[in-house]
Amino acid sequence: MSTQDAYKRPLRDLRISVTDRCNFRCTYCMPLDEYEWLPKEDILTFEEITRLARLFISLGVEKIRLTGGEPLARRDLEKLIASLSSLDGLKDLCLTTNGSFLAEKAAALKAAGLRRINVSIDSLDPEKFRRITKRGDLAKVLEGLFAAQRQGLHPIKINAVIERGVNDDEILPLVAFAREHGFVLRFIEYMDVGNVNHWQSKKIVPKKEILQTINAQLPMRRVGREQGNAPAVDYAFLDGGGDVGVIASVTEPFCSTCTRARLTADGKFVTCLFAQQGTDLKALLRQGTTDAGLLDILGTVWQQRRDRYSEDRLAALQSATGYDPTVRKKIEMISLGG
Ligand code: SAM
Predict the structure, then answer these.
(1) Which of 110, 252, 280, 296 is deepest in the core (most CB within 10 A)?
(2) Separation between Cα atoms, residue 45 and residue 256, nearest integer Å
(3) Cα of 237 to ligand 1 centre, how many Å?
(4) Could you give the C-alpha distances from 309 to 226, 237, 250, in angstroms and in order?
(5) What is the C-alpha separation between 136 and 30, in angstroms, rounded?
(6) 30 lines ligand 1 (CB under 6 A)
(7) Is the model's pLDDT at 314 over the cut of 80?
(8) Whose CA is nearest to atom 10 of ligand 1?
């Protein structure tokens, strides 16, 4: 069964935030030293997550990404991976992590059934990495990255958010590193997620500029979006040395092909990365709602989905009045799951 939203977009992907906690304080995401974390009892249990995942799969979800917060900060995450990877109908299960616990966790994740992974690395300079993440240790993250590679997790993608004046000089070093070691690199335009990162449009390094920088050294050809609906547009190096992707949510929004739903750590079903609220599934689960009742609600929420935030933002950015990111109080990325 495939459920479609109001703009005929099917439900295909589910991003599950397994915790809102994170040991980093990335300046572009959640830089605050003090943050009010969700109480433990409000976090969905692995059984609750698995039950919801099964229901989402029956509505058309084929791919699940575990995220957070920092997903590897959730104890025994491999147990959840083992449950999810055995669900009928799930074609792809992956994880996005800051990599800081990967060295210890890679073997258990692989054994539990995880096949691929995305690691966020915005700089290869230890000091700059520290400045961006406020608490991160690049050596530890690289140790984790190579541990995951040795375990055979494949592909391993590196996510790099490029911010003007912060790490725009890291584009070519990151490309060289990824090519040398066989990682797939994904550049992400700096987005106005949440409210606390003081986003300004002048800090974006647009996709066009990222591509120009790479092309000047290493010519590429456009490959396109994986399966037509991936967030990244891929480009292959003409010398055969792999490919690189760019996620251009700001300058080339892809709302029209967005098939992604999100489940927050406390069980809110959210239909857009820039949403202000979600549907409280935890309350329904804990009130004893049946599978049929839950399916009905999930289907209805998706059918009513009209989100196209990034397209509206681009129109506003290009208008005479401009775009004010503070007008809408969005759910923080750390709670929502990236
Ligand atoms: N802690 C994990 C990590 O660091 O990958 C998972 C959660 S993190 C919120 C998921 C992804 O969102 C990361 O790749 C991060 O770089 C990206 N992200 C966070 N804030 C962003 C922003 N303002 N613009 C673009 N990407 C952002």
Answers:
(1) 110
(2) 33
(3) 25
(4) 22, 32, 10
(5) 13
(6) no
(7) yes
(8) 338
With a 6 A CB cut-off, is 331 part of the ligand 1 pocket?
Answer: no
Residue 123 Cβ contacting ligand 1 at under 6 Å: no
The pTM of this model reads 0.97
Ligand 1 atom, smallest distance to 122 CA:
16
**Cα 46–chain centre separation:** 20
70 Cα–ligand 1 center, Å: 10
Residue 78: count other Cβ atoms within 10 Å of its Cβ: 18
For residue 229, the model assigns a pLDDT of 87
Given a contact cutoff of 8 angstroms between Cβ atoms, the answer to whether 96 and 159 are in contact is yes
Spatial neighbors of 66 by CB under 8 A, at least 6 apart, are 16, 18, 77, 80, 81, 84, 93, 94, 95, 96
What is the best residue among 25, 121, 184, 188 to mutate for testing ligand 1's pocket, by most ligand atoms within 8 Å of CB? 188
Phi, psi dihedral angles at 124 (to 5 degrees): -105, 10
Q: Is 333 a pocket residue for ligand 1 (Cβ < 6 Å)?
A: yes
Asked if residue 210 has its Cβ within 6 Å of ligand 1, the reply is no
Indicate the residue type of 299: G
What are the Cα distances from residue 315, in Å, to 77, 312, 319, 330? 40, 5, 6, 19
pLDDT of amino acid 1: 58
Burial class (CB in 10 A: 0-12, 13-18, 19+), 202: exposed
Q: How do residues 121-174 score in pLDDT, each as one tens digit?
A: 999 999 999 999 999 999 999 999 999 999 999 999 999 999 999 999 999 999
| Centre of ligand 1 from the C-alpha of residue 223, in Å | 24
As beta bridge partners, residue 244 has 185, 235
Token couple for 58: 């029956």
Mean pLDDT value of segment 12-24:
97
